[in-house]
Design brief:
flavin-dependent sulfhydryl oxidase activity, globular, Thioredoxin_CS, protein disulfide isomerase activity, five-stranded mixed β-sheet, Thioredoxin_domain, Sulfhydryl_oxidase, 5 helices, alpha/beta
Length: 138
């Protein structure tokens, strides 16, 4: 009996581990946080009934790389709040997004901006201070 239990425990652990890392369990959100670019940013952020937290990052930034798993975990933890707030990110290293990143004053990375519900296109999002984020990713 003990041998059976000892052989089942690793199996249960493996199944739970696979479940935790299975991105398909996010109710159809296969890329969450949502990856935005210059062609879909406006449609996803402006004049919506929900707020949006956007991370402007560089794929070459060391801090951004360290933050990525934690930001993904944060997005997964708040996924049930999608009707109120959505989480997204923009890769400012992509040449197609340079104008978008400059428009939102993202010169250092990561930069976080909060766009409230019904945010207008001519209004700038609220930049979240890096000092507040230090404890989050260090």
């Amino acid at each position: 009996m003990i041998n059976i239990i000892q052989s089942i425990i690793p199996l249960i652990f493996a199944v739970n581990l696979a479940y935790c890392f299975n991105k398909n369990r996010l109710d159809g959100e296969h890329d969450y946080p949502k990856i935005l670019n210059s062609s879909n940013f406006d449609d996803y952020v402006y004049d919506k009934e929900y707020a949006t937290l956007v991370e402007f990052y560089s794929s070459y930034c060391g801090y951004c790389k360290r933050l990525e798993p934690r930001f993904a975990a944060f997005a997964e933890n708040v996924i049930n709040w999608r009707s109120v707030v959505k989480i997204a990110k923009v890769n400012c290293e992509d040449l197609a997004n340079i104008k978008l990143c400059r428009m939102h004053k993202s010169k250092t990375y990561p930069t976080f901006r909060f766009f409230g519900a019904f945010h207008k296109q001519d209004e700038d999002g609220i930049q979240i201070s890096k000092a507040r984020l230090v404890k989050f990713y260090l």
